[in-house]
Design the sequence.
């Protein structure tokens, strides 16, 4: 049997166009970048001066030269949580758990990356937060850290961080101190003291309430005594007789059988007999 052979012949120049198409596809894929929501990008010019600090690219489809690289970072508000070992004003070591909200300056993203690197959180933000926390916490006692000074401490740490990061192209929006961990013995002593203070305040409240009630009763009794004195002084014999006569007249109108003896009672008041 004869072998049938099929010869496939490319058009003249076909191989060249295929190779050119492959090269174009590779170049296109390397020249396009999609920047997502809440992100920004800066160009690293491989054949130039490195990071281009003049322009920050926004969200969407971007085209760059294939020999350059687009560095994309989040530029929306972000948060980092950290645990720091710091010393109180009396030298006691405490652990502070906190969260920091921060946001890179969009227009200065290139300057931030050029001066602090792509990992600017570790290079810039973490040291600033730790330094501020140590400075602020070192002003307070463990009791103040544990109880009443939380809001003030948060604001002071924020103020310290903002001073350190001034003109560093990274804005810190808020600091939240979530927990302050003290040694067990210190925490127990503070909780016991706070409980005793609360009980003392409660006792003082009850005592003050009782004293006010006693004062009220005293004033009420004195008022009644004065009223009775005035009433007694106003009830003369003549007034009593008039009131007795008036009451007798009212009783005489009653249908019940009765005998009224006029002038036979004490002080000349009527006596009512046979009242049914």
Sequence:
């Amino acid at each position: 049997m004869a072998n049938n052979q099929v010869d496939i012949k490319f058009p003249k120049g076909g191989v060249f166009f295929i190779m050119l198409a492959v090269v174009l596809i590779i170049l296109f894929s390397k020249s396009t970048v999609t920047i997502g929501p809440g992100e920004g990008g800066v160009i690293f010019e491989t054949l130039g001066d490195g990071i281009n600090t003049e322009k920050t690219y926004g969200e969407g489809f971007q085209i760059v030269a294939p020999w350059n690289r687009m560095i994309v970072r989040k530029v929306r508000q972000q948060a980092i949580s950290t645990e720091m070992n710091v010393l109180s004003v009396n030298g006691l070591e405490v652990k502070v758990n906190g969260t920091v909200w921060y946001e890179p300056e969009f227009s200065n993203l290139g300057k931030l990356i050029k001066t602090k690197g792509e990992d600017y959180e570790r290079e810039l933000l973490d040291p600033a937060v730790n330094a501020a926390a140590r400075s602020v916490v070192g002003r307070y006692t463990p009791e103040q850290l544990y109880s009443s000074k939380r809001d003030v401490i948060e604001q002071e740490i924020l103020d310290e961080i903002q001073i350190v990061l001034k003109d560093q192209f990274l804005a810190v929006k808020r600091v939240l101190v979530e927990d302050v961990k003290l040694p067990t013995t210190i925490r127990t002593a503070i909780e016991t003291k706070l409980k005793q203070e609360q009980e003392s305040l409660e006792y003082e409240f009850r005592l003050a309430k009782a004293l006010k009630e006693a004062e009220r009763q005293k004033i009420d009794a004195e008022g009644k005594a004065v009223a009775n004195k005035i009433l007694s002084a106003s009830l003369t014999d003549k007034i009593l007789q008039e009131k007795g006569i008036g009451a007798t007249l009212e009783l005489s109108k009653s249908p019940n059988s009765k005998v009224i003896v006029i002038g036979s009672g004490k002080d000349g008041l009527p006596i009512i007999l046979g009242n049914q």
Remarks:
- The two ends are 153 Å apart (CA to CA).
- The mean pLDDT is 78.
- The first strand starts at residue 32 and ends at 35.
